[in-house]
Structure formats: structure tokens, C-alpha cells
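__Protein archive entry__

___
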Amino acid sequence: MEEKKEKKEKSVWNNYTAEEKQELFQLNESYKAFLSQCKTERESTEEIVRQAELKGYRNLQDIIKNGESLKAGDKVYATCMKKAVAMFNIGSRNLEEGMSILGAHIDTCRLDLKQKPLYEADGMAYFDTHYYGGIKKYQWVTLPLALHGVVVKKDGTVVKIVVGENEDDPVFCVTDLLIHLSQKQMEKKATVVVEGEDLDILIGSHPLEGEEKDAVKAAILKLLEAEYGIEEDDFLSAELTMVPAGKARDLGLDRSMVLAYGHDDRVCAYTSLAAMLEVDKVERTSCCLLVDKEEIGSVGASGMQSRFFENMVAELLHALGGYNPLSSRRCLANSCMLSSDVSSAFDSRRCLEELGGNKNVLIRSVRRFLQNNEHTCEQLRIHIANGNYAVSRRILHDVAGLSGNLRCMPLYEASQSLLNDLRNERHDSDEDFYCAFEDTADEM
């Protein structure tokens, strides 16, 4: 019998023409600028609206306020609390026939300042923080950080703050132990080597002259008042966050990759935006939906669990002269959506290290993983629903072991998290596991 040959996947680079590569690099430069400028969902929304208006999109709220009607060929956008955007290009077909929707999220993991963040300890001033989204906490120590956000003052004035992005700006950081003082720390698991409560931001050490108590804190408050007109109570009505400082940079001597904060999920948000802005006339109404709060479960007034999108679709139908509750439901039911999120690369180098450098073992392991776990998610759902936690833990233990050996770390970490939940007869993180499993299977 003729031996079946392994299909060898080709690098996507080999499929591009010279013209396509040039076009790709041009898009990439725009993407890097977007990453560098837009580090919060507010900043992303502001830039998205700016680009949309340059392409002829109008604010849907202005249409509503003026009592105007819409027709095929019109382009409108709507924002939700300045943290999410929905863009619509009205097609020639009836909106009840549905829309073609691109979806991604523009919020990113970060360190949020608490409502009363400023304090002094041992002659140092700090901001107290709470991490947003799923982060590896140990990655955030001794990293240059920038402060982004807005402060609403007592008189209603909104002050926009960005500190740490210009070359002459100061930056901030989370402190860590010196290597020769960290023996016990280094023995801890990665999940607890840096605790969430340790992620406070060092912001100053110079005391205010003539002040005895909390003199460093007093000096910081004086600087904030002089520079921004901000008092300590103004933090109660502020949204301030710490993010990695610096611009997006080319990665590699061949500049074939990008090293930056915020790929998750601005890589999908920006490409969806770029595609939407390129389209002119359409038959089927197209929509680009770029949303907030995905990192914490899409909750809240600006997340997808809100009614923002449904409300805007209803407003759209009304402006087109055809709204009723049934038409809105038909529009949503007949729509198709490409919901995209960032994917991690398959790290074959680390995987090969675990397997002694044997590529044949790697190939067999990947094939075995896919074959043996074809119905894993389905089985887990059934066992968890029936309260069979012991069986569920055994299944997860196998998945965690093999995914760890293959260096599929997102799946490994999701497996460990769900295992911990199941030990307490809970399953809060099961959906995260299912998503990680599907992403890993697709990459393999």
C-alpha cells in the first residue's frame, strides 16, 4: 500500500504577491498607529468615530434629533457611553432580511485605579489598583506603565489624562523584590507569585516641604492640582487606568511581527473597522460592532449584555420608516455575524523542548490530542450538568496534562482554573474552558 503523506502547511507569507505584501505592510503601519494611540476603550471609540466621519458616516443621534429619515446608501454610527461603537452601511435590500455583521471588542486587560486610590506607605506614594480581565499578574511588575483615563470634576468639567506616552513624560511601575531577596517568592506557583493586592503603582517619593504627615501624598496632590486642577475627591468620579507605556514596535529583523500592548482584541477590531470603511454601496446592510467589557463577561451598560445594539437596530428601522417589534426581531434573526477574537500562535519551540526535540512525537501528540478529545466539551457539559464532578475532574486532568506538554498554555490554564472550580463543586469558568478548547483545536 502507498504510504499516506503528511500534508505540509505552507506559510501564508509564501502565498502573497509582492503587491499584496506591500499592501499588508501599509495596513500594518496604520494598525501600529492605532495600537499606540488607542489603549483604552474610550480612546479606541474616539479614534473609530474620527475615521468613520472622514468616510462619510453620520452620528445616528443627530439623525434622531433632527427627525431625519434614512435610505439605502446612508452610513451612520452610534456610540454607547463613549466605550462601544456600532457602524451601519444601509443596503438596498429591506433591513428585515438581516445584516452582515463584523464583531470584535476594544477593551483590554489593564490595572484600574480604585475610587480612593492614593495612599502613602514608608515614604512612598502609591495608587491602589484592581486588575481588569484575565492577566498573568507577574508580567506586570517592573514594567513601565502609563496613566490613561478621564476625571469628571465637581463642576462637571471632564479632564482627559495621558501620562507616560511622551518621551519626556514620567512613567510608573509595580515594584518587585530583588533577586537575592526573593528565594521564598521564587518557590511559589506562577498564579500566586504576585498577588492581585500587590499590584499597586509606585508614583512618587518626594515629600512636600513643611508637611509632617503623609508628606509624599501631599506633594502628589499638589502636583495633580497644579497640572490638572484635580482634587483628591475627584478620584471618586474618575475612570483611570494603568497600561504598558510606549508605542507598538516591529518585532524581528525582518519586521514581520508586531510587539505591542492590546492585540487582544484590537487586531480584530482594527481589521474589522478597516474592512467596513472600505465598503461603499451594498445590497445587504453591513454593520461593524466594536464593544466593551468582553474581558469580564460582556456585563454592564456598555457590554453586549446591555440593550445598546438592539436599541440602535430599532432606531435604524424607525429612521427607515419600517419599525415595529416584529421587524426588529426579523432583522436580528436573519442577520449573520462574524465574531472575531485574537488567537495565540502555536509555540512549537517550547513544545519541542518538552518532547525532547522530536518533531515526530510532536506530530503524533497533536494528532492523538485531536482524536482523543473530539467529544470532550460535549461530555464535560453533560457531566457538569449532572453534578458528576469527579468524572469531570478526571477528564480535565487529562486535557491539562497533554495541553501542558504541548505548551498550549491558554488551554492548560483554563483547564487548571476549571479544575479548581470543580474541586469546590462550582463551574464558574466552564465557558472560558470551552472557548480555549475550541481555539486550541482550530490552531492545531
